[in-house]
Amino acid sequence: MPLPKAELHLHIEGTLEPELAFELAARNGVELPYADTDELRKAYQFEDLQSFLNLYYELMAVLRTEQDFADLADAYLARAAAQGVRHAEIFFDPQAHLARGVSMGTVVEGLWRALGTSESVHGVSTKLIMCFLRDESAASALQTLEAAKPYLDRITGIGLDSAEVGHPPVKFREVYEAAAALGLRRVAHAGEEGPPEYITEALDVLGVERIDHGLRCMEDPALVERLVRDRVPLTLCPLSNVRLRAVDVLAGHPLPAMLDAGLLCTVNSDDPAYFGGYAGDNFAAVRQSLGLTEERLRELARNSFLASFLEDDEERRARYLAEVEAYEFGSPDAL
Ligand SMILES: [Zn+2]
User: Fold this and answer.
1) Residues marked as binding for Zn(2+)?
2) 7 forms bridges with which residues in the sheet?
3) Is residue 80 predicted with pLDDT exceeding 70?
């Protein structure tokens, strides 16, 4: 039995496996420039961030209908459940779909077909977080929030993702203020490739409650002190960091130092179809490469539920936390 955990940093578009990409392409009459799944799987071995993003956006062309989004989310939830995920707070990128002529309603209602039944089908509770692409304009983010207004009963919070450098959090002040006024929770990617100042700015200007990635906080001791004091969760994605070269090798990942510093770290999969593994795979990888003890692994699992947006259901959070405390570690490969 895998370690019970919450996944808090997961882009649903990044869960598109080659087999499903071909299935949806055939269903929708979309031509993919790859002969078969083997050839496509080779393309998943991208060289850098840009080649990853190119493929990521290219493959989104197969997502057209509500059922496509439902199938995508359902496939993720099945895999996540098999790796011990009990609760998932799932990112989606509406601008990437709106730009292709796919409506907000198609995306949200499609995802909801899977999320709304996830608990009974997969035993995974879920929340949905709408992300803005930070390399798009602030005006586009505001329009996207406007387009989402009819669906806010489905959406728990907002986030900020895609290429970080050159797009500081302050660019999105207005849309974060508007989202806060609507009662939405706020997170943002910061300090992955961007500097530690972006983390401070995300906290001070955008009022975020969690930092996605946040690795580079380690360059600023005063910031680390603040994150520890205020118990600001960081959603780390170790395998993603290696694939996108934020760290050279997994054995050099700062996760142990971050835990030693007292930071509230969590382990997540980011874009698992592309980065070599789902949540449990990330746990197993850090256990193996970083030599984390069972108590450290339990701490990471505990943190994931403490950092979840489960304030509307504290009973559920307590139940999940009890599962973590009762967990008995078995095979080192299954986490
Ligand atoms: Zn991410």
Assistant:
1) 9, 11, 189, 270
2) 88
3) yes
Q: What is the CB neighbour count within 10 angstroms for residue 322?
A: 12
Catalytic residue annotation? 192
List residues, by chain if needed, whose CB lies under 5 Å from ion ligand 1. 270
Determine contact, residues 118/72, Cβ cutoff 8 Å. Answer: no
The binding site consists of 9, 11, 189, 270-271
In the beta sheet, which residues pair with residue 270? 10
Regarding pTM above 0.90, the answer is yes
- Domain boundaries, given as residue ranges, for the chain: 5-326
CB atoms within 10 A of CB 177: 14
Nearest C-alpha neighbor of 86 from the set 156, 6, 10, 11: 6
Name the CATH architecture for the domain at 5-326: Alpha-Beta Barrel (3.20)
Q: What's the pLDDT tens digit per position in 111-161? A: 999 999 999 999 999 999 999 999 999 999 999 999 999 999 999 999 999
241 alpha carbon – ligand 1 mean position (Å): 10
Q: What is the pLDDT of residues 216-231, one digit of tens each?
A: 999 999 999 999 999 9
